[in-house]
Every structure is written in structure tokens, then in C-alpha cells.
Amino acid sequence: xxxxxxxxxxxxxxxxxxxxxxxxxxxxxxxxxxxxxxxxxxxxxxxxxxxxxxxxxxxxxxxxxxxxxxxxxxxxxxxxxxxxxxxxxxxxxxxxxxxxxxxxxxxxxxxxxxxxxxxxxxxxxxxxxxxxxxxxxxxxxxxxxxxxxxxxxxxxxxxxxxxxxxxxxxxxxxxxxxxxxxxxxxxxxxxxxxxxxxxxxxxxxxxxxxxxxxxxxxxxxxxxxxxxxxxxxxxxxxxxxxxxxxxxxxxxxxxxxxxxxxxxxxxxxxxxxxxxxxxxxxxxxxxxxxxxxxxxxxxxxxxxxxxxxxxxxxxxxxxxxxxxxxxxxxxxxxxxxxxxxxxxxxxxxxxxxxxxxxxxxxxxxxxxxxxxxxxxxxxxxxxxxxxxxxxxxxxxxxxxxxxxxxxx
Length: 408
Prior knowledge:
- By secondary structure, the protein is α/β, with parallel strands linked by helices.
- The protein folds into two domains: about 40-155 and about 295-375, Response regulator (Rossmann fold, 3-Layer(aba) Sandwich), CATH 3.40.50.2300; about 160-290 and about 390-405, Rossmann fold, CATH 3.40.50.2300.
- It contains 13 helices and 14 strands.
- The protein has helices at about 1-25, 55-70, 90-105, 115-130, 160-170, 185-200, 205, 220-230, 240-255, 270-275, 300-315, 325-340, 350-355, and strands at about 30, 40-45, 80-85, 110, 130-135, 180-185, 205-215, 235-240, 260, 285-290, 345, 385-390, 395, 400-405.
- Helix 2 crosses helix 12.
- The radius of gyration is 24 Å and the shape is globular.
- The relative contact order is 0.13.
């Protein structure tokens, strides 16, 4: 009987050991780019070319990951961050995406910047089933979960932003004569569609002129002259930083005094408005979702205190008034949350699952009331904005937080 009891006990112990080993194996699942010690993340940025002002985003993300690594990493794993320059060139973006996936063997590509570049790599990333996560562009198509389940946006969709501007104009200036300048790519066209959708039946009568420019153009001055000549009393600049600054300067130089709406991506105090001249940007309008590092009202805000402490230690040369600095920090904080939720299941499938499972997640840098929410059918993490007017040397927020859900 003793022998039998011993055998039963031994069998139970072996079964328990097998079970615990099985559980341990089940807990740790890795795809290419992940291991017990590291998580390899790829990134593509325009460190050169016409959109090089955005390059600071990649530098901020690298600095944020340095901080995380110094603090012990994520679940004991260090982040190995590789960021390449594509010069805002779609063919170059494809080349860099292939390099990251096939040569560097990253777990996923995070925050690749620009609508043209992301458009160029979207089909490749989805065919390879490698996450194209939190793309740094608001083009609406990057949240189409059904058609592209491996691609997810981050910032508010451009169409949402456009509808919010339209809603504002309809309520404050319903007889506006609008002239619109837009970048001739998916970014500009997406914003333009949002504005027209928002204006609805009044779009045909309110929009009296449209003009587009190419990112290869050295200056857009001639476009501004042409639009002023139409007699428009409202000007909407759907532009990226370099061209946003040019437009502000030229409008002022011409003595044109329209109601001026600037798209969010070109509304940075540090990289656009200051170079263009604060005096030229007074009363300009935009829509915001993140706190402005140039605004002293956030000096005692708990989230921004963390942000400023981060800058002091890990990016002392960064310009806190540059919206791209705030942007890079917020994006990196979001992906770190996804990795924390993923735990020891670092498969590409689970990365997307966790990215689509963010509930009322708040960032240090988001405006109060703006929260990140995603689901298996909602790949638009941030869908709330607040109108702002430029006064002095900062943006003054006004009105309520507006939900601009895609399709809403």
C-alpha cells in the first residue's frame, strides 16, 4: 500500500510538473523580434526632405524607450528601437519597411510617419502580417480594420478634424467665402473631404476656391496670391509644417485678413508659428487634442510635470514648444502600454489584439477629457478634439471637447 501511495504521489508530482511547464510555455509566446530579453521595434521617419520637421518625433520615441530601458524595460525586456529615414519618399519607405521586416526582423513597425509613406507600405505590412502600429498620420484609411487588420492609426482622423472645422464655421460664420489650400496627397484630400462632408449642402456655395500644392515645390507663395485674389474671407490651410509657415508669412505679407484655419499637423508653436512670426499668427484657429508644451497653464499639471522631467533627463536639447516633441512622447507612451498588456505573449497577433483593447487610456500629454479607446472594430484611438485660437504666444482652448468619430 505504501508503494502504491508513493507511485500515486509520484505520478501526481510528474503531472503537476508537466502542467506547470505547460503553463510556463503557454505564458511565453514569441514571434520574430521578441525574446526573453528584448523586443525589437522598427520605425520609419522623414529625418530629411520636405517633412523633416517631423523627424524630432522619432528622436523623442528613441529617448522615451531609453528611459523605459533604464527603468528595467517592459516585463524585464529591453526595447531595441531601430529608426530609418525615408525622406518622406514612398519608394524609400517601402525599401525601409522591407529592411526592418526581412533583415532587422522586428516584431512590428511602430509610428511610421506620413500619409504617402504609410500608403506605400500598407499592403506589404498586411501581406506579411506584421503590425503597422499607431501610424503617424490621420488619414482615415489607416483605421479600416476590416480591410487592413494589421494597420492602426493613432491621432484623430483627418476627416474627423475637417468635420469639426466645418461645424465651427457653420455655427459662427455660415455665409463664409472659403478658400482652401491643401497638400496634393491623401493627407490634404482626406481633410478636404472631411470639410466638405461637414459643410454638407452648403459646401458648394461656401467654398469659392480650392488650390493644391506638391511637397516638391520650394514655395507656395504663388498659391496664396491666387487664393487671395478670389475675394475669400476665410482661408483654410491644410498643410504640413514647412508649408504652414510659408502660408502664414505670405498671408501677412499680402495684408490679407481672412478667418484663418490651420490644420493641426501644421499648428506647432515651436516649429511653425514662431518661425513664421507670432505677430502673423494672431487669432488663427485650429483643433487640438494634446496639451501645448508652450502653454504655462500646464506647468502644474501632473502629466506635463512627468513630460518636462523626461525632457530634462533624456532629451535636454528638445524644444518643449514643438508639438512634435509632445507627439512623440504620447505615441511612445501608448505603445509601451500595449506591450505591458501583452505580457509574455509577444506574438504579432497579440500585439494587435492588445492595441485594439485600450479602454479609457489617458496619456500625460492629452487634453483633459480626451481618452484613448479602441476595439476589434475601432482602430481610431483618439477621436476627440477641442477648438483653439492663437493669442500672444500660445493657443487658447475654447468650447467643449468635441467627438469627431469617423463616419459621425
